[in-house]
Amino acid sequence: MIVITLVIGVVLAFVFFIYISSKPVSYTLTALSLLLAVVSMVFIIKNDHDHYGMKQVTTETSQQIYPIGSKQMQMILYQPIGTANKHQVYIYQKSANAKKKSHTQTTDTTNKVVMTSGTTHMVTQTTRWEYKSDAAKLWFGISGEGHKFVKRHNILYVNKSVQVLSAQQAKALKKMMASKSYQAKLKAQGKAFVTKQVMAAMKKNPTMSAADRAKLVKQATAEFQAQAIKNVLAQIKK
C-alpha cells in the first residue's frame, strides 16, 4: 500500500504541475503531492532499515536428538567455528540408527549445553520479524519483511551419561582406544581389578556360589570399564 501511495504522489505531482493552468493552484497541489511521495518514501526506508511497524516474535520448538558413538561411549560433539572459538557447531543424530550425522546451524545461531538427568533433546528458539498489526501489514506487506529471520538459539539438554567432546578430543579418544599397547595395558589392569574384587569377596564369603561369582565379575568389569573411560576422558580433556 505504501508503494502505491508513493506512485500516486508522484503521478499527481506530474499531473498537477503540467495540466493545471492556474500557477498558484498548480504549485500548491504539486507541493502537496510531492510531500505525499516524500513521506511515503521516508516510511518505506524506515520499514526497510528500522523495521518500522514490525516486532520481533520468538517461537520455540523441541526435538529429541541422539548421541553418536557406541553404547559404551555416547557423545555429542562440537566443532569450533573460526579461530576465536566463540561459537560452535554441535554434531548429533536425529534418530538412534541414523546413517547421517546432523549438526546445528552455522550462521546467526547460538548454542548452549545443559546437562540433565532426562532425555537428550534440543529446544530451538527462533526469532523473526512480524507485523505489529493488520494495518501495518496492509501498508508495508509488499516489502517482504514479514517473517524475516533474525536469529536462532539452541539449548541442548544432554543426559549426564553422554559425553560432550570437541571433534579434536573425539579424534584423540579414537586414536587412544585403537592403540594396541593401550588395549593390552587396559586388559591387564582390568583382569587385575576384577581378580582383586573377587578375591576380596571370596575372603568375606568363602562359600560364594558360581552364579554369585559370575555376577560379581560382571559388576566389577562394568565398574572398571566406567573408571577406565573416566580416566581416558580426563586425559584428553587436559
Automatic annotation (TrEMBL):
Q: Taxonomically, which superkingdom?
A: Bacteria
Q: Where are the transmembrane segments?
A: 5-21, 27-45
Pfam hit, one: DUF4811
The cross-references to InterPro entries, in alphabetical order and at most eight, read: DUF4811 (IPR032083)
Q: Print the keywords alphabetically.
A: Membrane, Transmembrane, Transmembrane helix
Official protein name in the record: DUF4811 domain-containing protein
Q: Which organism is it from?
A: Lentilactobacillus buchneri DSM 20057
